[in-house]
UniProtKB/TrEMBL annotation:
Organism: Candidatus Enterocloster excrementipullorum
The protein's name: Cyclic-di-AMP phosphodiesterase
Family: Belongs to the GdpP/PdeA phosphodiesterase family.
Compartments, record wording: Cell membrane
Keywords attached to this entry: Cell membrane, Hydrolase, Manganese, Membrane, Metal-binding, Transmembrane, Transmembrane helix
Pfam family, one: DHH
Boundaries of every DHHA1 domain copy: 603-681
Gene3D superfamilies: 3.10.310.30, inorganic pyrophosphatase (n-terminal core)
PANTHER family xrefs: BIFUNCTIONAL OLIGORIBONUCLEASE AND PAP PHOSPHATASE NRNA, CYCLIC-DI-AMP PHOSPHODIESTERASE GDPP
Molecular function per GO: hydrolase activity; metal ion binding; nucleic acid binding
Major location (coarse): membrane
Record note on cofactor: For phosphodiesterase activity, probably binds 2 Mn(2+) per subunit.
Cofactor: Mn(2+)
Lineage per the UniProt record: Bacteria, Bacillati, Bacillota, Clostridia, Lachnospirales
Positions of transmembrane segments: 12-35, 41-59
Length: 686
């Protein structure tokens, strides 16, 4: 109505302008008459004629002009209604509840397809809610489906006055409540063909992949020499047949490495089957004692073919870093994991350890100071590995410091031996901020027993130090320290202390490990292997033997690990209160009140629960400082690393953990059970 009054006022003013000009002519006549009487009389005659014509036009032709304008507006409104009604784009008007007040023919045709006869947009398109109808004048777009067609639903709230004078005004008003002053305009854009074409284009994209045989040499050695070529041929045939069934191409790069390319449309099939080639290749048996396993790395949705190949390279490195026997798919910024059921096989050769040790020595020779850091709430494996790197640095006449922000109850007895002995400098152990103040161009950072930046003891050091080395035995995840100049991640190793013990032997001649240092590293191996019963290989015992020769004392280590009475009672309570879920999973909560390091006690309780017959995996939750900590353990039937990754954590196949902030224990336990159900339904539990 406000717009109507504005238009009428403008039109009236336009008709009155001749009368306003008449006043100017009268003034002009008076001035001319004052100059010349004769001229004034002549001008006054013309002025009177002008005023008479202006009055005649205003009073006699005003009605005719208004009628002409109204006729034009009416015809324009009717034409607009016809155009809107016959517009090829479905268009309609709804009230605030979503009920249709008016629709054009195209929209009516869509409504007629709905056999239920519903006339509400929220019923036709469930993605549209009543709150979305009040857009405040802004355009809101929703993608939805109706029948077999896909639509983009554009919504815009408009003032009812905009429909004034149109043919559908009365129809709209009749359907509105008296107090309603706005409606919502609805446009439907059919995207069915567009989405179809986009999908076709997406399906034709090239996916690059790499296949590596994890244990090629070991498998060949386990079979007679005359049959080795047959084993290789059978593996080649399995891989070629699998990729061929996907209409792809495969090329053998080396004796144990393959490159393949397929169309992206076949990725869904591979993922739904969880990459069946992973299990199929294990069936190849011609007398070999060891089943062949392989790793797959796939890159897709890169901007170029080259980028897809780079994604595949990164994926295969991650698959190998996680222990092999699995597929890793890097879909642009998203990473997906499949497989990883088989128990990883230990690499008996130390070639990689020797190469990494030499590379570490070259980096250390060019630096003046070493900072050594483990993970937050360091355990004895992290501490022992840090001590081993400290010994290497000191032997090479480098200044070294171990970054340790919070000392747990399990580490404190071992740390006190160094602090109280008087044989080590006072700055051997530093807090994170103190270490950050020492960083300069000649500083090198060695990260041990962790490869995820978010859970390191002092994440800020990763940004301050340019030269970073990572030594870890945990499987890698999508979150890694990506600016490391040297990364030695060996998931086959039992512990970080085992890896460091090997590096000590190869990095330089004449390094003498002192008894307290040997005790710390030996203790790390004992704890992570649960007294040499979990993930223990030949190299584990060789590392332990080296440390024993260096002065590690088993009795002394055992005394250091004796538990506090409160810790023992908390562990016993966690075992007593355990719940057996789905007849295979032991789930419990560890008390944290009055316990110095409840997360350590929770991990010990998880180890104890695993000793119960019929338990495939044990998970203990600990609520500590506003965070719920998960400690997960298994023997060989459940990949707890995959389980914990679904909760934002990670670790080993048989030892893993996770953390959840701002949740209660019950909420965390509910989420854990959902993950277990998901893994069971996907067949990820043996």
């Amino acid at each position: 109505m406000r717009n109507k009054r504005k238009v009428r006022g403008t039109f009236r003013l336009y008709l009155q302008w001749p009368l306003f000009l008449s006043g100017l002519l009268i003034v002009l006549t008076a001035i001319v008459g004052a100059v010349s009487l004769k001229a004034g009389i002549i001008v006054s005659v013309f002025t009177l004629v002008y005023i008479g014509i202006a009055l005649w036009l205003y009073f006699s032709r005003k009605r005719g002009m208004l009628e002409g304008l109204i006729s034009f507006a009416s015809a324009y409104g009717k034409n607009s209604q016809v155009l809107m009604d016959e517009m090829l784009i479905p268009y309609g008007i709804t009230d605030k509840s979503g009920h249709f007040l008016w629709v054009n023919r195209e929209f009516q045709a869509i409504l007629d397809e709905d056999k239920s006869g519903l006339k509400n947009i929220t019923a036709l398109f469930p993605e549209v809610t009543k709150e979305m109808l009040a857009t405040g004048g802004q355009m809101v777009s929703i993608h939805s489906a109706f029948g077999e067609r896909r639509f983009r639903v554009d919504l815009k709230e408009v003032d009812l006055e905009l429909f004034a004078g149109s043919g559908e005004e009365e129809q709209i008003k009749s359907g509105l409540a008296a107090e309603s002053s706005s409606v919502t305009a609805v446009y439907l854009i059919d995207e069915t063909q567009t989405i179809k074409y986009k999908q076709q284009i997406n399906d034709q994209k090239m996916v690059a992949g790499l296949i590596y045989l994890d244990n090629y040499d070991e498998a060949l050695e386990s079979v007679e020499e005359v049959r080795r070529s047959l084993l290789t041929a059978l593996i080649d045939r399995k891989i070629t047949k699998y990729i061929g069934s996907l209409e792809g191409i495969v090329k053998k790069l080396e004796k144990d490495k393959y490159f393949f390319a397929i169309k992206q449309q076949y990725m869904t099939k591979m993922q739904e089957e969880h990459f069946s080639i992973l299990e199929d290749v294990k069936t190849v048996n011609i007398g070999n004692d060891m089943a062949v396993t392989l790793s797959i790395g796939i890159g897709m949705n890169g901007e170029t073919y080259g980028q897809n190949y780079d994604y595949a390279r990164a994926s295969i490195d991650m698959a190998l870093g996680r222990g092999g026997d699995q597929a890793v798919v890097k879909d642009a910024d998203k990473i997906l994991y499949y497989g990883g059921k088989a128990q990883q096989m230990e690499k008996t050769t130390r070639v990689k350890a020797r190469v990494k040790a030499h590379a570490l020595r070259e980096l250390m020779e060019n630096k003046d100071r070493l900072l050594i850091m483990g993970h937050r709430l360091a355990d004895i494996d992290s501490f022992g590995a840090a001590v081993g790197i400290y010994r290497i640095a000191v032997s090479m006449n480098k200044r070294a410091h171990i970054v340790l922000n919070e000392v747990t109850s399990s580490v404190r007895p071992m740390m006190d031996r160094f602090v109280e002995s008087g044989e080590y400098p006072e700055d051997m152990f530093l807090k994170g901020p103190e270490a950050a103040g020492l960083v300069d161009a000649g500083t090198m950072l060695v990260v041990v027993d962790v490869n995820r930046p978010s859970i390191t003891d002092e994440p800020s050091l990763l940004r301050l130090v340019k030269t970073i080395v990572v030594l870890d035995h945990h499987r890698t995840s999508s979150e890694i320290i990506d600016n490391a100049v040297l990364s030695y991640v060996e998931p086959y190793a039992s512990s970080a202390c085992e890896m460091v013990a090997e590096v000590v032997q190869y990095i330089a001649d004449g390094i003498k490990v002192r008894p307290p240092e040997a005790d710390a590293m030996y203790a790390g191996i004992v704890i992570d292997t649960q007294n040499f019963t979990n993930q223990t290989g030949v190299r584990t015992f060789e590392a332990a033997a080296f440390l024993r020769r260096s002065g590690a004392d088993i009795t002394r280590v055992r005394k250091l690990f004796r538990e506090d009475m409160k810790d023992y009672q908390a562990k016993a309570e966690a075992v007593r209160a355990a719940e057996v879920y789905m007849d295979a999973f032991a789930i419990s909560t560890c008390p944290a009140e009055g316990i110095e390091s409840p997360t350590i006690v929770g991990a010990q309780a998880a180890n104890e629960l695993l000793e119960i017959r019929g338990i495939k995996a044990s998970i203990v939750l600990t609520d500590y400082n506003g965070t719920v900590y998960f400690s997960a353990r298994s023997i060989d039937e459940v990949n707890v690393q995959v389980m914990m990754e679904k909760l934002g954590g990670g670790g080993h196949r048989t030892i893993a953990g996770a953390q959840m902030k701002d949740v209660t224990v019950e909420e965390a336990k509910t989420r854990l059970k959902e993950v277990i159900q998901e893994m069971m339904s996907e067949g990820q539990v043996s």
